[in-house]
Amino acid sequence: MSKRLTIETHFTEAELSCRCGCGKMVEEDLLVRLEALRRIVNRPLIITSGARCEEYNRKIGGKPKSWHLHGLAVDVACTNTWDRFALIHAAQQLGFSGIGIAENFIHLDLRPVDVGRVWLYS
Predict the structure, then answer these.
(1) How far, in Å, are 28, 98, 103, 110, 117 from residue 114 at the CA level?
(2) Is the pLDDT of residue 37 over 50?
(3) What integer pLDDT is reported at residue 1 of this predicted model?
C-alpha cells in the first residue's frame, strides 16, 4: 500500500499519507493537481487530512465511502474568506469534482465528474 512521492512537490509524505502510519498515500493525479492549485493561489496549502486506510477513517468518524480511502481526497486548512473563495475557484478550474466547505477547511476530491458536487458541512 505504501507509495513514495514521485514528483517534485511542496508537500511531504507525512501530510498526504494516512495518519495512522500504515503508509497509504494519495494518488499521483491528486498530487499533481495540488501542486497546480498551490501555484494558482500562490500560497502554501496546509493539508489537514490526506489518504486514509479504512481503520483510521472509522476511528476519526469519516464517511464509509470517503474518497480519502481511495487516495483521491484531501482536506486543506482554510479560515480566511478571501482564501476560501480563491481556493474553491481554482480547485474547480483544475477539475476537483468534490468540494466540501467547512468552517476551517475545504475538502477537495477527484470523484468521477458525473457524481461531482459542492456541499457545506453543518
Answers:
(1) 21, 11, 26, 11, 9
(2) yes
(3) 46
Q: Give the alpha-carbon dihedral of 33, 39, 86, 112, to 10 degrees.
A: -10
> In a 10 Å sphere around its CB, with 0-12 CB exposed, 13-18 middle and 19+ buried, how is residue 78 labelled?
buried
C-alpha cell at 15: 501530510
pLDDT tens-digit profile of 57-81?
Answer: 999 999 999 999 999 999 999 988 8
Rounded to two decimals, what is the model's pTM? 0.91
Written in H, E and C, the secondary structure of 26-95 is: CCHHHHHHHHHHHHHHCCCCCEEECCCCHHHHHHCCCCCCCHHHHCCEEEEECCCHHHHHHHHHHHHHCC
- Asked if 109 and 97 touch (Cβ cutoff 8 Å), the reply is yes
Full set of structural domains in the chain with CATH: 13-120 (3.30.1380.10)
Question: Which residue in 67, 78, 82, 72 sits closest to 102, CA to CA?
Answer: 78
Look up residue 110 and give its DSSP letter.
Answer: -
Q: Determine how many CB atoms are found less than 10 A away from the CB of residue 36.
A: 15
